[in-house]
Amino acid sequence: RTGAARAYYGLVMASLLLPLLVFLGGSWLAWKSTVREAHTELERTLSVSMEQATKVLDTHLLIAERVTDLLRGMDDAAVTGHELALRDDVLAMIRRFPQVTSVAVTDSQGRTLLSTSGHPDQSDTSGAVVYINALHDPRVPFFIGTTVADQSAGRPAVTVGNRRGDDPQHFQGVILVSVSSGYFEALDRTLFGDSADYTTCVLRDDGTSLARYPSPPASDRMPGRDDLLLQAMKLDPTGGTIQARSPLDGRDWLVDYRKLDAYPVYASVGRSWDSIVHEWRALMATHLFFGIPATL
Length: 296
Known about the structure:
Helix content is 47%, strand content 24%. By secondary structure, the chain is of the alpha+beta class. The longest helix is centred in the N-terminal third of the chain and has 70 residues, at 2-71. The relative contact order is 0.13.
């Protein structure tokens, strides 16, 4: 009897432990699968984000090249003298690019000679100084600035500066093309369906944010540096994955980042860690719903 009782006891324990072990093993495999799928989703979405960012920056350079062609052979006096006609030409040029908020042309000192925003104020050179300093070097074909408030659009914009003219030995000034940061946000909002569990960022290689989804509060929309991504970029300059807690919202995020091929710019896409956990729990709840009755 004792042997039979032990055997019976063993069978009872096995009938309880075996499903538990199977469930724990299945839970671990399901977790690994959920995280793997999250990585795959981020990689796929990052490719889309990189393509969008590259197209926007390509548009900057394309417009700058067209403005260069328009102004070829004209000195500062000629540009000023034909300002109204040139402004109309440039406005017609950018009309089919709704993301472009403004185009401006300066002289070598940073004074605005031509602007699609209206009559240029030649007394104010502060906005162009950083571009003038960077593009004085003929080896620098363009310079990507930080996000600043575009006066014509009334919202943050990313400005790219290009050298004016074709002569590398003679610096004439810069051509400034601005694109609304909200253009990036609108694309990403469509991509993620307004979900708060995803985030994207386009940033310079010094960590300065150019555009972000979701957009930061109105009181904090000027450029900031993403120190977490900057540290990761220094460790792996081509791209990689990090899991870290964001100082912006205190949530843990899984983030993929990668450098654009043609620009000193990175794109990143992140998914909140709690949304990944929630997806795994929902999957396991389904397994329990069907698995428990099967063991009875």
